[in-house]
Structure formats: structure tokens, C-alpha cells
From TrEMBL:
Similarity remark: Belongs to the peptidase C2 family.
Source organism: Ciona intestinalis
Superkingdom, taxonomy of origin: Eukaryota
Active-site residues annotated for this sequence: 141, 303, 327
Keyword set includes Zinc-finger: yes
UniProt protein name: Zinc finger protein
InterPro entries found in the cross-reference section: Calpain_cysteine_protease (IPR022684), Papain-like_cys_pep_sf (IPR038765), Pept_cys_AS (IPR000169), Peptidase_C2_calpain_cat (IPR001300), Znf_RanBP2 (IPR001876)
Amino acid sequence: RWICSSCTLRNSSDVFQCVACGTILVPQMSISPPSSVESLQPESMSMDQMREIAERKVMTIVENIIKFCRDQNMPFVDDQFPPTENALYFPSSSSRPNKCQWLRPQQITFSSNDTDWRNREWSVFSNPSPTDIKQGVLGNCWFLSALAVLAERPDLLKRVMVTKNYNKEGVYVVRLCKAGVWQTVFVDDLLPCDEKRRLIYSHARGKQLWVPLVEKALAKLHGCYEALQAGRSIEGLATLTGYPCESLALQQSCPETEVEEDMVWVKLLSSMEAGYLMGASCGGGNMDTNDEEYNQIGLRPRHAYSVLRVTSEYNIKFIFRLVQLRNPWGHFSWKGDWSNESVLWQQNPQLANQLFQRNADNGTFWMCLEDMMKYFDSVDICKIYGRNWVEVSLGGKFPTSAAEPLTGFTLEVFKECELEFSLFQQLSRTQESSNQSPVDTCICIFRSSVFNGKATIGTMVASSKRKVKKHQSCSCMLDVGTYLVINLAFNHWLSGYAGAGGSPSTSGVALVSPSYVLTLHSSHAVGITACNNIDGLIADAVIQLALKAGKETAVRDGVACYQLTKGWGGLVVVAENRHQSSCFHIRCETTCNNLVSSRGSLYTADSVPPLHRQVIMILSQVDSYSGFSVKHKLTHRMAGNGVDDLGNWGPRSVKHDPPLTLDVANLHQPRPL
């Protein structure tokens, strides 16, 4: 039985329409993030197999709803996302058009400049291309740009629309991957229009419905259309495809990071050869852009372009690194070197014959890598893999202190394979949740073994960088064996999360454990299960990370410090005492900005026992939109024989200052070598 959402009458399960008020039953859509690791399927399955199974199930329901609507001579109305103001705006929104009406396709008109629509019939697809997309009043270029990149591959685009043919009943299904979780979204074809019966939001040329229907499905996932404002193209690509995505930086984000042109070029070439989708972000991120300057050279700042080709070309004297881009809006093109009007084509006729398209008017142009790295801030790469790749997703939560258990995932690799790990934080787009901030995530993969039901942590084989971003990724090749996957995050321990508004935990605000979804794509089937039964897991994970990726400094005979700084979103300090009998004293004094300490203090003093390692301090970036700075000074000495406390560096009989309280002990307690 099912309960009608309009009149609350309990109806029989064999009817699709409420017998009292006539409301049509819409299949329920799961739009909540998984609350635990048990809530997602831990078995890997081919991505194409998953999609085909889901489509078969859904199309049976679609056919039943269409048949019911035809029998009743009535169109479909989605009561889960009804055509009201609540579907358009946040409750407190002030940016509302003067008038809005919800119309079916056959009721919609177009501007007088678009004469093509009069001679066409409505369809879902009609030879779709990136230049079909037209943005409306909504500031969702991040999504439409990703949609334009996907439209470069119509075969992939059509996977998003489960219902690929127009139907008068208005029953459509869209398949999207929200923050790592696949969602099957039912929508009707009632679309927001102005008083002249023209579409308010996005639409497509030639009376195609794929653009407004996918946009409506995404609005339903996030609660309303207004929730789609602002974002990054990489989020759109991941949502539309479910494939692993990564962002290739073209600009230096902080003084400690470097962007090497040669490495960027190698990555672009290899991604193009692999058949990946790529979208370039122009003048976005932290770039200080001058809109007038960009307009003069034919570029749109804060706009995304499709990357079509990447090639190295030669003449007698030079090597040219050229990238072909397309403005998805089909006009307004680059005017600099290698543009459509550039004299460089005349000077290099052989290249012109190979690459140049005369009279190109679809927004396509060539640009050299040097200019691209001057005016673009990043390239988002969507890794399209073959049919045999498998996918598995698991949910979890980041602990708010070291006193809470840290979930690890035991990974069994049965055949050498390539793996892609994607970590999605479950953050809401609603205005009421706008104070949610992503935490500083890091994915780590370690060798492991299981003995008497307990997993052990070994050396680290791969990791991502630590970044304050909603989405994190890590790629690696793994041999046959057992591994342990650990997801780390620390800046929410003392900075608060969600309801805390960035305040320290000492404000008395209860901390909320941020939830996440870990998605794994692999070239062969793997086994993965959650495990919590690991002693000292969080400390050992950070120690092994520092040993593998940190800078080692031999401070004394038998004593070393490992530090993670450049590219690690703050500072990590680990001390190692290889002496047989003497303790090692170490003080860490720091000054910083936009960083929070895992120990709640910027000064620490510790006595590290013989044959032990210890995580001394972790400083984590808080605000991803602001830079950070840190200076630290390490002072150290060997303790006398039989001395295990700090001596005159701390209170009597104290080994650690500040003390290792319950909420930090499992991270900062000394661990045996």
C-alpha cells in the first residue's frame, strides 16, 4: 500500500492513482546520503551492467505510468516536485521573476529570432550538440558547461536520459550521480515559463527537451532551481557521468605550490589519448581577472570551455603545443595567437592544412599552451573508462575526535589492476545549509594483512594530497594482495561543522560527524569491506603518510623528524626516536593564519620514548577560499638516562604538554616502531 501525498489516503499497491483525489503515484527517489557503510552495496559491479539493470527496472515503471495516464486521458504530474514556487526558490529568496507559469512543451513559445522552432516537432534528442544549449536566468554555468562537454560525446549524453523518446504524457526519467550515489529521478515536463510563455531557465535549440529535463531533475535532487546557482564544472561532470574526475591546476594556488608547464602538457596529452572528457575553466578560481581585458581578447571570464584536441606540432625551428577549445555557446572566440584570424596560420601553411578550420563559426578555436595557462585557471578531467570497469560505493563518517572510531576499508585485489578512488562529502546546496564547509580530506592506501580477525596497517602505497574540497580523488596501480583504505580529515575537530559556523568546539556547539561516500572504480573486480577493529589506526595512518610523503630531517643521531608542508593544506610533524634507551624531547612552536591545530594549541612539548614514533602536531586549513600561512620552530634534545618526562620543559612528571586528553590521545600518543 501507499499513502497519497496530497490527501493522505492509503491506497492499494496495484493502483497508480489515488482513488480519492486522483494524484498519480511517483516512484520514490532516494536523495539522502548513506548514513553508514552498510547502506551502500559493497560488491563491485560493471558500470554498464549497473546502468542496464537500473534502466530495465525503471522503464517497466515508466511504461506502466504512461499506460495509466493514457487510459485516464490525463498528463503526468510529479507530486514529489510539484509546480509551485517552492520548486523554484529558497523560502527566503528575494531573486524572484515577476511572473512564472508552468507549461507543457506544446504550450511553450520561443523568441521571434528563433524561427527554426516553428518547423520542428518536440523531441528529447535531435542530433544533440554542445551549441544547442542556451542558458536562462539561472547562474548555473558550472552545470551547463559540464553538460556541453558531455554533449561532445552524444553516446554518453544519452545515458543520462533513461527515457530517450518524447511522450505526450510527460513522463521522463533522468539518471544522475549525486555526490557519488546514483539517483534515478522521475520528472514531468511542466517547465517554468515567463508571461510570454518562454522558458525561464535553460533550453535547447530545435525544440529538444534534454537540456531542461536534466536541469529539472538536478533541481529536484537539490530541492529547487535556485539551489543550482554557483559551482564548479568538475561537480557537473561527476554528477552527469559518475566517472572519476580530477582538476588539473593551471595557476599557483599558494606560494608553496608550483605549476610546471611540462607536467601540465603531459597530463593533457595523456588524458586526450585516453579519450577522457575535459573542460577548461577560464578566469575562475582565485585568479584576479579583468573582465574588459578578457572581452577584448575574445574570452569569457568565469566560463568553461570544452577541450577538443591536444597536439604537439613541429616546423623546422619550433615545437608548438596547441589546444583546441570550444565556447559552448557557439560564438565569441579567442583573438590571440593561433586564433581563427591569427597570421600564424599563414606563416605555418602546413599546420594550417592539418588543423585550421576556415570560416569556423561554432565557437571553436586553437590556442597555445602558454596562453591557456595565462588565462585559464584549471582543466577538469572526466575519466571515461571501458565497459569492463567496475564500480563500488561505500558510505562513512569522519570522526570529530580521536576518541571516536575511524573506519577503514579492507580492499582485496585479486588481479593486478588500475584503481580510481573518489571521495565525496555530503554537503547540501540549500541556502539554509550554506554555512557548511568541506573538511580537509586525504585518501590513503596502505598495505595490510588480517590476523585473528584484526587488520594491521603497513606501508603506504598511494595517497591523494590533503585539500579542503568537496571532492577528492586518488589514482594508483595495485598488485594482488590486501590493502587498507583510510580517509582522513581534521579541520572539523576544533573548528566545528555544519551548525557551528566555523567556531571552535570550545564555544560549546556540538560537533557533527561529516558524512562521505567513497566510490571505487577499478579495471578488475575487487572486494572491499568496512573494518573498525584496528588498534592505533589513526596515529599509524598519519605516521605512515609522513614516512612516505614527508620531508625527512635527521635532527640527531638516531632521531628524525618528518614534515608534510608543500601541497598538504597545512603542516604535519612526526618525530621518530630510534634510540634504544633514551627519550627524545621535542618542542614545536608555530604561528599561523587560517589553520587549526589538532591539539588545540600552537605550542607543544613531548617526550618520545625509545623506539617510538609520535604525531607531534597537525595544522589544518579551515577556509578553502582563503590562503593560509604558517611558521614553525622545532627545538629538541635527548633526555638523560632514566628520564621519561619533559623535565624543565613542562610541569613535573608530565610527558606531553598540552596533555594527551581522550579526544586527541589516539592520534598523538607515541607508537612503537
